[in-house]
Structures are given as structure tokens and as C-alpha cells.
């Protein structure tokens, strides 16, 4: 039995999606046939599920309209339909809409046609296309080839997709930890789990050299560590009860004799938070692949009067040698995983209304999630640190979403 045939159906679809879109080969050949920086060309690689007969509007135009609507803060299909119906002629022209010679006007596809068509598209192929596009932009953000690129892997449940008798859909994503820009996402099937989705997720990124992956304890897996090493990437993983032997080994170290080498002090929101880190070279016989350093992070929270509120201690391992990441850098990389809730999940749930969205038709929830994350990243790349404010800016002028997406002529 082949490895691919042994995979759950959702993950098998991910492993073939790059070939289906033609993007994996283009990444490997420096994008000679497809300009991965051009969003239109990326959309053009997504197979159109419709019969060739009777197609009046290109799939690329439909994706462009929906993506622009999401940048403008559309939270539901009703809001997306409204944006498409109101799009002016100059916007339709720039997006490549069909020109009707009889009326002398550009025609937008009917909003219902857009929604119905998007629902039929293969979500894995959409994920692969968007991931290839974002991965191609990483060199623009990190122009030093030797610079470490921190990324965080984390899962999120789409609560709005839950129905009677069916659990809510779950997705796994990876984002740039510092910039909170999602690079890739995939569905985690109901009969699978995040552990099995980890490698297919990162397979969507053509190059992981010098990438540092952080994640929660679930992903502290030996297979993950070996996979990242093969791809010239590093890891920073917390250690918990799912690795009892490793946990006991690290817990038995003489941490009381190890000096605190870096600490942070934060005061705000009615509390004081102090974080400290202690680091040791990996002891001989450490029961984890490619580990170079081990660490202990402690987080103490007090009220403004100095009364203790909580204390948390986290043991961890990393494949980063001390020459690449000292205590301060390790503390920053480990903290990246904790920040994803505020930087991505909260914005998607609250600002763009993902949890309130009740769209459940076929692949639509997964596709809209990918496009929402892209909308957030597009606004962040324009220096909109407040995404709610960014969507208001996008609504001020129909040209603004096109500027954010790089679709202006």
C-alpha cells in the first residue's frame, strides 16, 4: 500500500493538490510558467468545476470579487452578494469582468452564481494555491537568506459550521509569528487529527530552510522533529504529558542551579506579568531527535498590588543551537505560539465574524476561511495594525480593496 493511499481522504487530497494546480512544479522551477506573486495567475491555476459549455464568467473574476468583498469586511454571503451587486464599472473592468457589447457595460456574475460556483471548488486546491502565493512572498519579508523565519502552527475550530449531529469543522494553519500573516491552511478531517495534518500542511510551503516552527504540546512529536530536520527547518516545542519520558528527563534537571538569563516585565490590563527563561545544552541521551537546547519558561502574573494571581512553568526543547538562538531569542520564539489566538483567531472570529457565519455548503466554509486569512494579511501588509479600521478604509472606496490585493491596473 502506498503512503498516499494510506492517508485519510482529506490529507490525501492535500498531497495531490499542488500537482493538480500545477503550482508545485512551478515553485521548483522558479515560477517560470506561473507568476506566484500575481494573485490573478494563482487563481487561474485553480480548476474550474463547471462544464466548459455555458461558462459566461471566469472563475478568476469570481474569486476576485469575493476576496475584495472580504477585505471590505463582508461577514456573510449576504454581505458578499451586496458588495458584488454594487461594484462599479471601473472595478469590474480591472477585475476582468465580461464586457457586453450590446450594452457597452461590464457585467458582474450574478451573486448567486458566484456563491454556487465557489461552493463546488476543491478546497484543498484553493489552499494549495493560496499557500504557494504567500510562500513566494516570504523572501520579500525576509530578504536575508540566513535570517531565521519564525512560524507558528495552530488549529482552529469553525464553530459556525456545527450542525445537529455534525461536529464543527476544524482547520490547521501556519502563520508568520511576528507579522501574523497566515501562509497555509488545510482541513483536518473528522476521522483524522492535527498530528496527521502537520506534514501535509507544511508540504504546501516549497522551502522551509531556516524556518523555525513553534506549536503547542500536541505537536511535540518525534516524527515532526525528523520531518523538519529533513527540510532544513528548526523547531521550538513545549514538552508535556504526551511525552512522559522526555518530560521526566527534563523535569529532573537541576533547574534551581541554572541562572535566569532573560526576563520580561509587562504591566497592563490591570495586571503585571513576568516571564523568565533558563536554558541548558541538551543533556546526553535526551530522548528527542535533533535537540540542541532545552529550556524552562516560567510565567508569573500579579495584580497591580503585587498579589500573585497565577504561575505557569513550561519545559521545552529546540533544535536551534545556541549560536543561532540564545535565551532571549528562544523566549521570543516560544512566545510566538501563544500570540496566535489574539493575532489571527480573534480577528477572524470577531472582526470578520467567522464564528457567526452560518455558511455550511460543501467546500465554502474552508474556502472562505482561507480567503478571510488572506484579507487580514493583505491589510496588515499595508500597515493596518487594527483590522477593523482597515476594513473601514476598504469600504470607503471600491478601489481600496483592489489596492490591498494588488489588483489595480
Automatic annotation (TrEMBL):
Pfam families per the UniProt record, alphabetical: DDE_Tnp_1, DDE_Tnp_1_assoc
All copies of domain Transposase IS4-like, residue ranges: 153-362
UniProtKB keywords: Membrane, Transmembrane, Transmembrane helix
One term of GO molecular function: DNA binding
Name of this chain's protein: ISAs1 family transposase
Domain H repeat-associated protein N-terminal, residue spans: 43-132
Native source species: Nonomuraea cypriaca
GO-annotated biological processes: DNA transposition
NCBIfam families: transpos_ISAs1
TM segment ranges: 59-80
Keyword Transferase among UniProt keywords: no
